[in-house]
Amino acid sequence: MQKCLLYILLCPIFLLNPEPILAGNPKPAPAGRDTLILIDGEKLIGQLDRADSKVVTFKSDLAGEVEIKWSDIQELHSPQRFAVARKGMPFGRHENIAKVPQGSLTVTDQKLQLKPKPEAPPEIIPVADTSHVIDEVTFIKALERPGVFQNWKGGASFGTSLVFATQKSRMFTSAVSLMREVPTERWMEPEDRTIIDFSSSYGKLTQPGETPVKTSIFHADAERDEYFSPRLYALVEGAFDHNYSQGLDLQQTLGSGVGWTVMKGEEQELDLKGELTYVHQQFADASLNQELIGSTFSQHLIRTFMHGIILQEQVAISPAWNNTKAYSATGAVSLTVPVRKHLGITLGTLDTFLNNPSPGFRKNSFQATTAITYTRP
Fold it and tell me: pTM (2 decimals)?
């Protein structure tokens, strides 16, 4: 009698939802969702965002956005359409898009299978030969020419120090760094790049009976690169500098030359540049004003470490050919540590050397700053 009553109670539940009672019958992924199975059997359901040669970025419904190494993936199934860029096969915006395999994606045995149509045979690409996996919307957008105000990346930082006592001190630092690459995708051949930088440092120290001590330094520059090949480009640049600590009212620099990307990868990039320059220097003592014809040789390294920590380092040496004593050099290092999604802390140093400052001023000017940084991805 008890068994009959139990059967009567469980029967409606079984008819409405039989899957939990059928042991060993896992629930399938909802329609339109992607499925990722790890080598330990764990299953993630969500959406494949992107992938490069090392890791897959997957947006799990339960775990959020996770990065998983290809070697840890047993299977991956997505009904969405993706494009796969192969290693060693650069692709430009004006080339035939048929060169890039596209279709719904399945990954098994460390091999990607792309089906352009349900009835078509899949194209198989080993994971080891894969450079990037891009969703179809991003792929099509990458082929378009962006507007002037689109696709800018970079950040802005600000720092301050205030003291109100017998001595009164104010110090403000700020910096803006922006870059725009066309196209934006690293798997495509670069066409052009625009770089804009600005930094400033202002301070004033006052105390009773003493002359105020002032600090005023700013730098601004803009650079345009046009690529001949994936690593070689022509460049034009303009820069403006003011350094009260060296008696320099304004230095205007115009230059053009060539650049070479020595290393370029997901985690680091190293550029070497050489250019011919015209320099106009204006000092606090107008009798020292001069015009120079010279060169600038520089290098710029950017390196990304784990947890999104970014290191930037650059050095530039500028000899003058019509006045060999009027040479200058700069060196800068910064480390940005993210603390929230778009906010971080930047520790930086900037060293400026001017061999011909105004009389009474030191040749070397050194700054160390700590600032809060907002980064635009």
Answer: 0.76
